[in-house]
Amino acid sequence: xxxxxxxxxxxxxxxxxxxxxxxxxxxxxxxxxxxxxxxxxxxxxxxxxxxxxxxxxxxxxxxxxxxxxxxxxxxxxxxxxxxxxxxxxxxxxxxxxxxxxxxxxxxxxxxxxxxxxxxxxxxxxxxxxxxxxxxxxxxxxxxxxxxxxxxxxxxxxxxxxxxxxxxxxxxxxxxxxxxxxxxxxxxxxxxxxxxxxxxxxxxxxxxxxxxxxxxxxxxxxxxxxxxxxxxxxxxxxxxxxxxxxxxx
Length: 248
Ligand code: CA
Hints:
By secondary structure, the chain is α/β, with parallel strands linked by helices. The protein folds into two domains: 13-130, Rossmann fold, CATH 3.40.50; 140-247, Winged helix-like DNA-binding domain superfamily/Winged helix DNA-binding domain (Arc Repressor Mutant, subunit A, Orthogonal Bundle). The protein is built from eight helices and twelve strands. It has helices at residues 21-33, 44-50, 70-80, 95-103, 116-131, 165-175, 184-192, 201-221; strands spanning 13-17, 37-41, 58-62, 85-90, 108-111, 140-142, 145-148, 153-156, 159-160, 181-183, 229-233, 237-241. It has a five-stranded parallel sheet with strand order 2-1-3-4-5, sandwiched between helices. The radius of gyration is 19 Å and the shape is elongated. It starts with 12 loop residues before the first strand and ends in a 7-residue tail after the last strand. Mean pLDDT is 85; it is low at 1-9.
């Protein structure tokens, strides 16, 4: 992080990275008309230069840029700014591209063409969550895993597991109800937004990557690990089971 002044919370700053003239202009105009401080640029290089040092609250990132692949831009931005909201804009409708975008560090995606209304609703939902300060909670121990929501840390045998913000929130939400079935709708509401509408593929992708990161951490620890299991309940949601909560 640099020494620039913190973002002005009265006007959230959004960087639009889009090489299509019509879409770029539409987004810049629409965001400004709705109270955001929006800057529109057209290349990945400009995005990497412009978005450093906490200068923006959110980046709307086209994946098909003329110079650098948008996925690489997302990965780079995420590496430098863990708290930056990154929403990818893609004409690619293949699931694989959306999954790749989320795995590269994007928080959300919109498939073109999308309406400005939907974009604004998503931005409001994401950005509102970011300014909420959660009440302090004591760390929760689940088998060998400790989840500290106040410090936003998750450790296994004392070793920190690096989780992306939504992965952490998903795990923390399940951990608040160990042994209980938690509906997909509840998870979408608590982790993403209370008025979530639209696809819930984001939940599946985030869950898959959370499971992978936990398994990798257990593998890497080099010692026996008792990890809570995240059980899929078809047509309903998920249940987090620990050795303590499982009756099997
Ligand atoms: Ca493009």
